[in-house]
Structure formats: structure tokens, C-alpha cells
Amino acid sequence: MLHQLKLNKTLATVLFLGLTITPVYAHTVKVAEDVGGTLHIEPNDNPKAGESSETWIALTRRGGKIVPLKDCNCQIEVYPKPRVNGSTPLLKPALKPISTSQYQGIPGADIVFPKAGNYEIQISGTPKANANFKPFKLTFPVTVAAGKTVVTTAPSPKVVNSPNQNNQQNTQQSAQNNTINSEKNQRINPAIPLIITGVSLAGIGVLGAVLQNKK
């Protein structure tokens, strides 16, 4: 009877450990103060660069009570690794309540990791007026696989002339204008002597007629 009791106790312990370890193995779990957090990223905790990944953190207090987003002044930040102390976050996605089969209204966000590599997701929070838990900060390591390559077409560079180039262009334009005006003048000038000659002959004819009349 005693042997049977020990066996049942051992089986119960193994069953309990199996139930508790399985979620930990499937997701990353962190604890700070009296709040624990479980991170999950779609799809299957395998985010890809350039693709939107729905991310959620199941926050629970000691005893297993869920901390929903409506009870938490939470914010989420994404940092590249290795992370430098005092560095600004690479991303600060907006949080939204997410409901799953196990959790309702937990903090979540849509995150687009810019490239493959290692990152840290940090969620921090303080309790709202109707909540009772200590301020916390949880950091989760994330590995992002290669995904879409976003190809961007660079705009054609705008050519901006330097002042010297502008002066040269203005000088060339002025020279061209002077050449055109000179050619026009050359085409017009040969007619001017003919006009002057005609006027002179007409004047001589008039003068001769006047003198003839006087005789």
C-alpha cells in the first residue's frame, strides 16, 4: 500500500512538471517583481524580416491571475542586439489588446523587424488605478529569420549647377546672342548705303532743277 502511494505521488509529480514545463518550452517566460510574462510571436515563434508578426505577451500575477492591457500602463520596445546601455529603441510599436484561446485582452502588437538578426523585445508597465501589481520590466530575446527583401527605387538625382557653371552658361548664351545680332546687322547694313545714295541723288536732282529755273 505504501509502495502504491509513493508511485501515485511520483506519477502526479511527473504529470505536474510536464504540464508546467511544456508551455515554458514552447514560449519564452520572464519574471520581474510579482509579474511574469510569456512571449509569443506569430508564426510559431519564428518571425521573418520585412513581414508583420503579431506579437503578444501574456502577463500574469503570482497565483496565475491575468494582467490585461486595460489594467496596465504598458509599452513595448524593440532593440537590436547587442544592445548598448542608454540606446534608443529601434521600434516602439503601438499596443493593442489581443485575445487567444487561453488569454483575453492581453498586450499585443504588430511588429515588422527590418532585417534578419538578433533582437530584444522589452515590455514595461505600471498598474492603472484599478490594478494592484508592482511596476515591472521584462526583456525577451528574439531571433529573426530572413524574409522579404524590400526593394526601393532611388529617385533620380537632381542636377544643380554650381555658380561657375551658371556663369559659363550665361556667358555662352550672351555670346550666342551677340553672334545672332551681328549676323542680323550684317544682313541689314548693305541696304543702308543704297538708301543713302538714293537720297543723295534725289537731292542733287532737286538742286539742279532749282538752278535751272533761276537761269
TrEMBL record:
<keyword id="KW-1133">Transmembrane helix</keyword>
<keyword id="KW-0732">Signal</keyword>
<feature type="transmembrane region" description="Helical">
    <location>
        <begin position="191"/>
        <end position="211"/>
    </location>
</feature>
<keyword id="KW-0812">Transmembrane</keyword>
<feature type="region of interest" description="Disordered">
    <location>
        <begin position="154"/>
        <end position="178"/>
    </location>
</feature>
<feature type="compositionally biased region" description="Low complexity">
    <location>
        <begin position="161"/>
        <end position="178"/>
    </location>
</feature>
<feature type="signal peptide">
    <location>
        <begin position="1"/>
        <end position="26"/>
    </location>
</feature>
<keyword id="KW-0472">Membrane</keyword>
<protein>
    <recommendedName>
        <fullName>Transketolase</fullName>
    </recommendedName>
</protein>
